[in-house]
Amino acid sequence: MRRRIVMPRTAEAKQRIREEQRAHILEAAKRVFARKGLAATVDDVAIEAGVSHGLAYRYFANKEAIFSALTKQALQAPSADLQRVRDMPGTPGERLKWLLSAFVASRQQPESFLLLGQVLSSQTAPDELRELVRQRSQDLQSTLRQLIVEGQETFEVAAGDPDQLVRALFACVDGLPRWAVYDPEHYHEHFPDAEIFWRLLKP
């Protein structure tokens, strides 16, 4: 019988495996922290991910490190959306409609939003993370307000107090993930189209 020769993994292959394992653990942690908040443990995450707690600790020193990584990951897409809408061409109304669509779409992953809510509501969440989440929220509110004001000047957006319009949008969109708690089986089935929210702003 011929002996099978197993080629050693390349450095790139090893790095890819590490990245995949880390991403898998974070995805499991997202679900755990969305349910339990900071009461979750590394063992809870390991069980959810189907890995040993030793492997989980190989990538994260403690649950705080996991929570921090998840929070920063959840804020990456909103930050990129804000930068993109600032740089894109188009009228204020067109840019506002694009940002609103991205804002609504981000709530299709309720675990990420519920996680950010944990950061703001938990007394044990690090101040650094709490401030980071607040700053990103303020950036989004400020950009929405600016586009609403500019859209009102071009008659693409309904007249009215821009601060009230921003708060109305946030109240509606941020209420969506609550349905993931109340009715998780039908959350995506009945997820509203962004056009519904755009009607709040149309003149």
UniProtKB/TrEMBL annotation:
One of its GO terms (molecular function) is DNA-binding transcription factor activity. PROSITE patterns: HTH_TETR_1 (PS01081), HTH_TETR_2 (PS50977). Residues 41-60 bind DNA. Keywords: DNA-binding, Transcription, Transcription regulation. Residues 19-78 form the HTH tetR-type domain. InterPro entries: DNA-bd_HTH_TetR-type_CS, Homeodomain-like_sf, HTH-type_TetR-like_transc_reg, HTH_TetR, KstR2_TetR_C, Tet_transcr_reg_TetR-rel_C_sf. Pfam families: TetR_C_24, TetR_N. PANTHER family: HTH-TYPE TRANSCRIPTIONAL REGULATOR RUTR (PTHR30055), TRANSCRIPTIONAL REGULATORY PROTEIN (PTHR30055:SF151). This is TetR/AcrR family transcriptional regulator. It comes from Ktedonosporobacter rubrisoli.
